[in-house]
Amino acid sequence: MKIVVLDGFTANPGDLSWKGLEEQGVLTVYERTKSSETVARAADAEIVLTNKVIISREVIAQLPRLKYIGVLATGYNVVDIKAAHERGITVTNVPAYSTESVAQMVFAHLLTVTNRTEHYAIQNRHGRWSKNPDFCYWDFPHTELAGKTFGIVGLGNIGQRVAQIALAFGMKVKALTSKAAEVLPAGIEKASWEEILATSDVLSLHCPLTESTHHLINASTLRQMKSTAILINTGRGPLVDDQDVADALADKRLAAFCADVLTEEPPRLDNPLLKQPNAFITPHIAWATKEARIRLLQVATDNVRAFLSGTPVNVV
């Protein structure tokens, strides 16, 4: 059984082991694969694993030996699922491996805005505090989270974990969710989209990217938000309109935008958000703690093992 990993570097840049997959067949791991290289590299493989390399209908048509596609992520939009199913190819993903890590990143971003610890650490390495006439100083207003309203769009695994942490901070949590109000965990209030926009001091996006959620945050919805609000996106980049958010920041109609994902990744140098001082952008790393990556590789390996045993799991 020939197994090919098309883009293994981000999941395992060398600090983890591929041993589990090596035990399942003849394994070849490529750090990165250009679209023009995909077919040649996967030509003889029965099993292909991909993170961001696109497996389109055209690619599938040129891989007659392919029996299984394993996505090294939770989202599986990189695979033409319909084309795979038509060919009888099993496709799996890795659900919920990064819940804790992504939830942690949400609050790393939020606390960056409310407390600016890195700013002060950098200032003080250059002697700012040592030269200060008073025992303390601050360059930004500090904000206490207790009592503020935390709005969540999407109450899946990550959304629910974020809600728990927000409640631990003493925040009021409102959620836009398809779940019935009576089944929501204690402390979470079901709310309409309009109420979420109007009342949230912090708004965090955790919904899937669909036709209805594409550019969910745009010029119109931004006008319905508080000018003091903090917007956080660790879900999918196209949930927000980059230009509209950048304009809102520039016009001080939005206090801050925190994102671990952007519409185009890596972003173009002229992405308008990169120039905004109150836009805090991390390079799609919320999922990438070592603990989460260990879980990712373990589940991906277990997926392959289950497929080979005839009882596939995590099939999409």
Describe this structure in words.
The chain has 316 residues and is of the alpha/beta class. Helix content is 31%, strand content 15%. The chain has eleven helices and twelve strands. The strands form two sheets. A seven-stranded parallel β-sheet has the order 8-7-6-9-10-11-12, with helices on both faces. Strands 2-1-3-4-5 form a five-stranded parallel β-sheet. The chain is globular. The mean pLDDT is 97.
Number of strands: 12
Task: Return Rg in Å.
Answer: 22 Å
Write down the secondary-structure element order. Answer: EHEHEHEHEHHEHEEHEHEHEEH
The backbone outline, from C-alpha atoms, is globular
- Strand order across the largest sheet: 8-7-6-9-10-11-12
Low-confidence residue ranges: none
Q: What is the mean predicted local confidence, pLDDT?
A: 97
| Tally of contiguous helical segments | 11
Largest sheet: 7 strands, parallel
Distance between the termini: 22 Å
Strand content: 5-15%
Give the helix proportion (percent range).
Answer: 25-40%
Label the structural class.
Answer: alpha/beta
Question: Quick summary of this structure?
Answer:
This protein has 316 residues and is an alpha/beta fold. The chain is built from eleven helices and twelve strands.
Secondary structure topology:
Elements lengths: L1 E4 L13 H4 L3 E4 L8 H5 L4 E4 L6 H5 L6 E4 L9 H6 L3 E3 L6 H17 L1 H9 L23 E5 L3 H12 L3 E5 L11 E3 L2 H7 L2 E4 L13 H5 L6 E4 L8 H9 L5 E4 L19 E3 L8 H19 L8
Parallel strand pairs: 1-2, 1-3, 3-4, 4-5, 6-7, 6-9, 7-8, 9-10, 10-11, 11-12
